[in-house]
């Protein structure tokens, strides 16, 4: 019985139609058990609240299920369990039977199919992000069985047929869009080409009825002329194929309305400019061993008769499509200079193309391009060598195509994909880094969860935030995505750097309060003495109140006092005593015109930064400090990247005026053999330099080596570089470098 001969909601007629279609699958006991289940529910339910409670836009869900089962039997060849699951699903939806009862009264496999349909229906009810690949993947994940997907495709076909001229146009449009975006591509992938074509045509009809009617009218208006043209094209081809001794059938096929519309959109043409509105199909009756050779023979006959377009040749004989489709397509210039598509295939190939997935299961496929196609190919490989029912084997194959991913919703219905094992915190960082950094927890499907909650496919996730929240180091153990890990580390480092900067300013104020100008090398020795590996760790300890700034200053003074105390009579380099020359005591003052700050301005008050001690010749820039003083930094200063990133508006272009004439302070780090004579030689070299002077020296010795810091005054960078080269020539010196 044609589908349009059964009126919507005419359940008795639909049941009779189904029983005829499913006669070979079901038995009287199955029918009796299903009727008994519905009767039990209806008798226990108040009038008007029966099994039709889950109707779709006024169309009985029971009627839709019966029509779906009948359509499956007519086109797909389902198994018994699929038919029973389809019929029992409306009862399950209405609360008339539980999964446990289904397993008890019917079959575990039937209950599994019903559960898969339930999962997809719940997903569907969210009405979000349907036109996305993630939604399709989530649907496949929740279905767990390819049979559930086949049922849903046919179910959508039945619903689409039933809603023509439905009064709720919003529902009609939504259903049509879902069919176009989701179910038609799935039908195509599974080889259900007839269903795919009908879904696409009806989708266009419901979303753009004027265009659909126009194209349909044009096709009907030109039918007589097209039929005549097809016959004139076919007749000489038929005669030539007969002369070649081939057994065949020739069909003329008009393109679907949707494919014509799609071509109009791509070519920006009107329907009158689409000439290849039909295709010729040559179906050869040939055994499988010779089908390729005869297809190519038919190809040569057609192309000898009509001029081919080589760019339009599609050889799916040598390399079939990933879904198993095999055919040879050519486009030739027929009478009246009209292009005609000719499809050449064997009877076996045509059965696969027309019948779809049921035919695929009879033949071996080919290697595929993605996970879903690979899975389908695996199914065909298994079924090739068996005489069992395809659907019977299908229930033993779990759809774990996306077992390494989870798909979750936002409250607005947007759908996101994350790796398996991802947490609530991963999801927060995926949405936005700021959301992740301030996340304090969340709600999943309405219940509160913690940051480390492991997401599951189908979850609806809401992120809760607090403006006082900050990333913590233990968050790294809660996340699996690289984006979340990187952002957590980056933010923690930024927080530590900001806290260290504040602590550094605090320590500098304490030094200033005690009227002490800290020396960088002595401060580094103090930090080392306290056991900190990095300066940032040291300042963070101050920020965390683990270190008291006054205690740091006291230790700093002790170390300085130890350096300046008289040396004992020992040979170690650490005991070297340095007497500062009288003429070097006050050589650090800067000439007013040594630096040009800003746009050619001279004579501006400034200070040379202690963190990098710039000297004449260094590349430098000015920075307006919080005290309003211009501090001159080297561009290679460790603090320069932070300054340029955070305070670019407080930097000032600065250059040397070209005139030196003053001594600048710089610190050298020297490592050498632990011998007091080496240190003496170094100080002697410096004392002989007229444009350099030694300000102070501190020395440590350990394991036969000494490590000294020499604070020198020099006129320029070049003089300092020359001095370093001379010190490197001293025997026993292993390394000399500028430290700031």
Keywords:
740 residues; six-stranded mixed β-sheet; 27 helices; 20 strands; 47% helix
Blueprint of the fold:
Elements (H helix, E strand, L loop, with lengths): L10 H11 L6 H16 L17 H15 L4 H14 L5 H7 L2 H17 L8 H11 L2 H17 L6 H21 L3 H15 L1 H13 L1 H21 L4 E7 L2 H11 L10 E7 L6 H15 L1 E2 L5 E2 L12 E6 L5 E8 H9 L1 H4 L10 H14 L5 H5 L10 E5 L5 E5 L4 H8 L1 H5 L1 E6 L2 E3 L11 E5 L16 H32 L6 H10 L5 H9 L5 H16 L30 E3 L9 E2 L11 E5 L5 E5 L5 H7 L4 E6 L7 E10 L2 H12 L4 E11 L2 E10 L2 H12 L4 E6 L2
Parallel strand pairs: 2-6, 13-15
Antiparallel strand pairs: 1-2, 3-5, 4-5, 5-6, 7-8, 9-10, 9-11, 12-16, 14-15, 14-16, 17-19, 17-20, 18-19
The total count of helices amounts to 27
Compute the separation of the termini in Å: 92 Å
The coarse silhouette is elongated
Can you tell me the residue ranges where pLDDT is under 50 for at least 5 consecutive residues?
48-53, 357-373, 376-402, 565-570, 582-591
Count of beta strands: 20
Overall average residue pLDDT = 79
Radius of gyration over all CA atoms, rounded: 42 Å
In what range is the share of β-strand residues?
15-25%
């Amino acid at each position: 019985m044609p589908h349009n001969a059964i009126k919507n909601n005419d359940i008795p007629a639909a049941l009779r139609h189904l029983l005829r279609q499913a006669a070979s699958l079901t038995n009287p006991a199955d029918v009796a058990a299903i009727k008994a289940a519905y009767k039990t529910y209806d008798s226990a339910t108040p009038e008007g609240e029966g099994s039709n409670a889950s109707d779709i836009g006024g169309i009985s869900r029971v009627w839709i299920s019966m029509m779906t089962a009948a359509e499956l039997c007519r086109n797909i060849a389902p198994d018994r369990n699929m038919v029973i699951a389809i019929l029992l699903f409306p009862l399950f939806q209405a609360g008339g039977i539980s999964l446990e009862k289904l397993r008890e009264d019917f079959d575990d496999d039937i209950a599994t199919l019903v559960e898969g349909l339930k999962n997809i229906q719940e997903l569907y009810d969210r009405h979000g992000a349907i036109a996305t690949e993630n939604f399709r993947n989530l649907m496949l994940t929740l279905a767990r069985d390819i049979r559930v997907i086949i049922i849903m495709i046919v179910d959508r076909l039945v619903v689409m047929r039933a809603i023509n001229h439905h009064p709720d146009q919003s529902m009609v449009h939504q259903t049509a869009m879902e069919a176009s975006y989701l179910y038609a591509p799935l039908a195509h992938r599974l080889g259900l080409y007839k269903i795919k074509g009908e879904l696409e045509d009806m989708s266009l009809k419901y979303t753009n009825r004027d265009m659909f009617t126009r194209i349909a009218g044009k096709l009907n208006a030109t039918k007589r002329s097209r039929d005549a043209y097809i016959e004139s094209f076919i007749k000489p081809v038929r005669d030539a194929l007969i002369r070649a001794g081939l057994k065949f059938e020739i069909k003329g096929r008009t393109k679907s309305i949707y494919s014509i519309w799609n071509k109009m959109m791509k070519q920006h043409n009107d329907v009158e400019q689409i000439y290849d509105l039909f295709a010729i199909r040559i179906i050869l009756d040939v055994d499988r061993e010779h089908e390729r050779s005869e297809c190519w023979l038919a190809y040569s006959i057609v192309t000898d008769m009509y001029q081919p377009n080589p760019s339009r040749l599609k050889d799916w004989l040598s390399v079939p499509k990933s879904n198993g489709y095999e055919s040879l397509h050519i486009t030739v210039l027929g009478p009246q200079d009209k292009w005609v598509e000719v499809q050449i295939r064997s009877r076996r190939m045509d059965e696969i193309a027309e019948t779809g997935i049921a035919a695929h299961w009879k033949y071996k496929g080919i290697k595929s391009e993605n996970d879903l196609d690979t899975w389908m190919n695996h199914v065909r490989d298994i079924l090739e060598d068996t005489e069992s029912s395809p659907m019977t084997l299908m229930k033993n194959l779990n759809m774990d195509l996306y077992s390494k991913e989870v798909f979750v919703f936002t409250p607005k219905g947007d759908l996101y994909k994350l790796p398996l094992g991802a947490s609530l915190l991963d999801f927060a960082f995926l949405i936005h880094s700021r959301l992740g950094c301030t996340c304090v927890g969340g709600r999943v499907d309405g219940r509160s969860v913690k940051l480390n909650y492991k997401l599951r496919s189908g979850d609806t996730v809401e992120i809760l935030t607090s403006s006082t929240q900050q990333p913590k180091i233990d968050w790294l153990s809660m996340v699996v995505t690289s984006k979340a890990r990187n952002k957590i580390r980056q933010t923690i480092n930024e927080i530590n750097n900001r806290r260290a900067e504040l602590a550094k300013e605090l320590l500098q104020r304490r030094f200033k309060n005690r009227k002490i100008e800290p020396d960088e090398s002595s401060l580094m020795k103090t930090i080392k003495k306290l056991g900190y590996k990095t300066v940032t760790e040291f300042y963070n300890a101050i920020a965390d109140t683990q270190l008291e700034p006054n205690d740091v200053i006291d230790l700093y003074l002790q170390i300085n006092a130890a350096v300046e105390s008289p040396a004992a009579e020992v040979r170690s380099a650490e005991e070297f005593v340095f007497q500062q020359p009288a003429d070097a005591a006050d050589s650090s003052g800067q000439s007013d015109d040594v630096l040009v700050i800003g746009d050619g301005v001279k004579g501006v008050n400034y200070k040379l930064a202690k963190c990098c001690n710039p000297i004449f010749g260094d590349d430098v820039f000015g920075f307006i400090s919080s005290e309003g003083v211009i501090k001159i930094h080297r561009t290679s200063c460790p603090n320069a990247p932070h300054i340029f990133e955070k305070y670019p508006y407080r930097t000032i272009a600065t250059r040397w005026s070209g005139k030196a004439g003053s001594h600048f302070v710089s610190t050298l780090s020297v490592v050498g053999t632990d011998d007091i004579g080496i240190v003496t030689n170094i100080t002697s070299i410096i004392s002989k330099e007229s444009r350099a002077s030694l300000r102070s020296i501190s020395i440590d010795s350990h394991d036969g080596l000494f490590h000294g810091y020499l604070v020198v005054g020099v006129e320029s960078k070049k003089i300092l570089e020359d001095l370093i080269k001379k010190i490197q020539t001293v025997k026993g010196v292993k390394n000399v470098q500028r430290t700031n």
